[in-house]
Amino acid sequence: MTGGPANLRQSGKVMFDRRELDAILRVYGRMVAAGEWRDYAIDAMKEQAVFSVYRRTSEHPLYRIVKTPGDARRQGAWQILAPGGAILKRGREIASLLSFFDRRRFRLVE
User: Fold this and answer.
1) Cα angle vertex 70, ends 23, 103, to 5°?
2) Counting beta carbons within 10 angstroms of the beta carbon of residue 94, is it exposed (0 to 12), middle (13 to 18) or buried (19 or more)?
3) Rounded to whole angstroms, how far apart are CA atoms 27 and 63?
4) What predicted TM-score, i.e. pTM, was given to this entire model?
5) Which residues have CB under 8 Å from 48's CB, separation 6+?
6) Could you give the angle at the alpha carbon of 73 between the alpha carbons of 67 and 74, nearest 5°?
7) Residue 39 near residue 109 (C-beta atoms within 8 A)
8) What pairing do the DSSP bridges indicate for beta strands 78-81 and 39-44?
9) For residue 104, what pLDDT is reported?
10) Which of 46, 93, 108, 110 is the most buried (most CB within 10 A)?
11) Looking at residue 99, what DSSP letter applies?
């Protein structure tokens, strides 16, 4: 087996830990149930880990949740990025960062 967590640590790649991934997947599940999101991708790179969410598989990601441990002291290790790369929210804790999606609920317009 070549792709396990031990190999990610040995290769120097950044990945989400179980607690972080659980929090992200809870939000993802809620948004899938609401019909907003349909697919996701996880990338582990040398300096960051990225969880991308999609409305449709063939499109660009709607949002990217990025963990960059190297930025933790300066501006926080977490970011939410828009499709164009603009930073929508930045933070030090995953829970407060994911609250961004709680505020994005749609209101009924009459």
Assistant:
1) 35
2) buried
3) 12
4) 0.81
5) 14, 66, 67, 68, 69
6) 90
7) no
8) unpaired
9) 57
10) 93
11) G
Total residue count of the chain as it appears in this document = 110
Cα torsion 86, 90, 94, 99 to 10°: value is -80
**Interacting residues of 4 by C-beta distance below 8 A, sequence separation 6+:** none
Cα 64 to Cα 81: distance, rounded to the nearest angstrom: 5
pLDDT in tens, 4-31: 555 445 568 989 999 999 999 999 999 9
| Residue 38 · residue 57 · CB < 8 Å | yes
Read off the tokens for 71.
Answer: 């930025």
The pLDDT assigned to 64 comes to 95
